[in-house]
Specification:
- The protein is of the alpha+beta class.
- The protein contains seven helices and eight strands; from the N terminus they run βββββαααββαβααα.
- It has helices at 84-100, 108-123, 131-144, 176-179, 192-195, 201-219, 225-242; strands at 2-15, 19-26, 30-36, 53-59, 68-75, 163-166, 173-175, 187-188.
- Strands 3-2-1-4-5 form a five-stranded antiparallel β-sheet.
Length: 243
């Protein structure tokens, strides 16, 4: 097996005394793990930073063997980790993608959208221009992995207007009128998710609560707790930024 491709670093785990197992996302070959010799060295640590764009070269004798990986830095986002909010955003989207996606299956739309999210975080560290896009990215991951929400019409009446809620069980939208009696059991559907635009901060936070419910239930069940911990840190920092 030999793959050479641009890729986004998602996760790095120490392996042995000096090496690291790296998980990186490519456009055409999906999520690929590899062992980087000397990956914990002072030379390679800044390269193996989540969010960085690299050219990866994976080589293995068989497809079932953990490949040896070498990397060449294309674009570094390491300076963003000096700021708490963009650092939290990159930590979360990288951890979520690494934990949720199966290996070696191409998800070109996920790759392109994740690249755009990282570019947006880099361009606007204050979050106003990327927080809504982050919610949409979480919805995209849910849909790509077979857990998409049905936000186009009311599950109870079939109407497409005045959608205000989402069932936490079915993931289907509910209109304001149909859901009024059950509002304490439903999740808010922010308008920007079905009407377009970027939404205001209350809508964005509602969107994060919505996607967070289904990510925890459907994507990260049984996965390492540190992925969800990264999301908690991001939401906490967004709440503080809004306040």
């Amino acid at each position: 097996m030999h793959i050479r491709a641009e890729s986004l670093i998602l996760a790095v785990r120490a392996h042995g005394e000096h090496g690291a197992v790296v998980r990186a996302l490519t456009a055409d070959h999906g999520l690929q793990p590899g062992y980087v010799r000397g990956g914990r060295s002072t030379r390679l640590r800044p390269v193996l930073q989540p969010g960085n764009l690299v050219v990866g070269d994976w080589r293995a004798r068989t497809d079932s063997q953990l490949a040896a990986l070498t990397v060449e830095l294309v674009h570094s986002r390491a300076p963003l980790f000096e700021r708490p909010l963009p650092a939290a955003a990159i930590d979360w989207v990288a951890a979520l993608t690494a934990a949720a996606l199966p290996e070696a299956q191409p998800y070109p739309t996920v790759y392109a959208t994740l690249s755009a999210i990282l570019d947006a975080v880099e361009a606007a560290p204050a979050a106003r221009d990327w927080a809504a896009a982050l919610v949409r990215y979480e919805l995209l991951l849910l849909a790509e992995l077979g857990f998409g929400l049905d936000l186009g019409k009311c599950a109870a009446t079939g109407v497409t207007d005045d959608l205000a809620w989402v069932s936490p069980n079915s993931g289907a939208a509910v209109s304001a009128a149909a859901g009024e009696a059950y509002r304490d059991r439903l999740l808010r559907l922010p308008k920007f998710l079905h009407e377009g635009g970027v939404g205001d901060w209350p809508q964005i936070l509602d969107g994060l609560r919505l996607t967070g419910h289904f990510i925890a239930r459907d994507l990260l069940t049984g996965r390492p707790a540190d992925a969800l911990a990264a999301r908690v840190r991001l939401v906490d920092r967004l709440n503080r930024a809004v306040a």
